[in-house]
Amino acid sequence: MNAPMDLRSRPALFASARACGKVILVGEHAVVHGQPALAAGLAGALELTATRTADANAPVRVTIPAWDLDVELRGDLEHPVARACSEVLAHCDGPLTGWHVTGTATIPARAGLGSSAALTVALARLVLGEQADRDEVIAASMVGERVFHGEPSGVDSAVAATGGVLRFVRGQAPEPIRVAAPLQLVVVPSEVPRSTADQVARVRRNVERWPTIARPMLDAIGAATDAFQDLLARGAHERMGELMDFAHHLLAALGVSSPILDELCHLARASGAAGAKLTGAGGGGCIIALPASDPAPVLAAFRARGLAPIVVEVQPC
Ligand code: MEV
Questions:
Q1: Which three-class secondary structure state does DSSP give residue 72?
Q2: Burial of 139 (0-12, 13-18, 19+ CB in 10 A)
Q3: Nearest atom (ligand 1) to Cα of 281
Q4: Which residues line the pocket of ligand 1, CB cutoff 6 A?
Q5: What backbone torsions phi and psi does residue 9 show, to the nearest 5 degrees?
Q6: pLDDT in tens, 97-126
Q7: Catalytically active residues, by annotation
Q8: DSSP states along 230-244
Q9: Which helix (H) or strand (E) element contains residue 137?
Q10: Beta strands in 126-189 (DSSP E)
Q11: How many helices (H) and strands (E) does the chain have?
Q12: Which phi and psi (to 5°) does residue 315 adopt?
């Protein structure tokens, strides 16, 4: 018979931990293939709170009402969220029983705004602490991200752990970049869920089948990313919309847009945006639009379409 567990010897969690969501400004998908991406953190995206359960042997339970998520980390772990969470906890030597983790989220799940990276970063910080080494937290998050997305580049985990605006190149340390002036973007959830792993696989298939066509497109997205970074550093927003349009059309040619995302980008431009593109994996999820001046007409156009756009401001840094 097992000896009763001493409560004080149970591995503990911190009371709470936070992580950012993300908006990829430019460079998604190309970043999987070695090109740079620029991503902005969405502060306050997720806060997790941990409380001990009365039964020390009960599996850890994770509940995030805003994401309709309520899973127990049981042995079978059919549920990808349960599997990802238990792998992150195991990686960090955290507890797999005796805790209830609840979350408050301000971003939607599975919409291309970094919900899975926010979850895995915040969970790692519940074990390691808010002051834990950032690279350690990112490494733990990646263990969960691989369960969700196969072989992610790491951009989502980096920005979820760091915030600010990052230039990310796979295999290199994320680099905070200069933003000369506040940048207002309208983020529009299409309300169509999608799978990042499927979208990444679609691009990979196109690159493998048609390397001489697809590789130059990835290179062109990389060039748009470099040009966007230069405009951000100079506060020269007026040309950014053109780069966003280029990026969207290149992503569409690589196979990761969808009729609804194309239509939303078109609506953004027709209602006064200087440019618009899908953000994140595509196939569904969100688009971002850059209002030429006042965001009100862009917001009104999406609201009239029954959607719930939000304004995000990327701050100078
Ligand atoms: C997903 O947020 C971004 C992608 O580039 C995938 C990745 O970088 O792992 C589509």
A1: strand
A2: middle
A3: 10
A4: 24, 28-29, 31-32, 149, 152-153, 155-156, 196, 200, 280-281
A5: -90, -5
A6: 999 999 999 999 988 899 999 999 999 999
A7: 156
A8: HHHHHT-GGGHHHHH
A9: helix 134-149
A10: 165-168, 175-176, 183-189
A11: 9, 11
A12: -90, 150
Measured in whole angstroms, how far is the alpha carbon of residue 81 from the centre of its chain?
A: 15
User: Which residue type does 103 have?
Assistant: G
> Which two three-digit tokens encode residue 62?
């994770």
- Alpha-carbon gap, residue 266 to 290, rounded angstroms: 12
Q: pLDDT at position 77, please? A: 75
At residue 200, the pLDDT reads: 96
Rounded mean pLDDT for each run of 10 residues along the chain, 317 residues in total: 46 94 98 98 96 96 97 85 96 96 95 95 97 97 96 96 96 95 96 92 98 98 98 94 98 98 98 97 97 96 97 88
Give the pTM: 0.94
CA of 255 to the centre of ligand 1 (A): 14
**What type of residue sits at position 205?**
R
Residue among 67, 57, 75, 129 nearest 102 (CA): 67
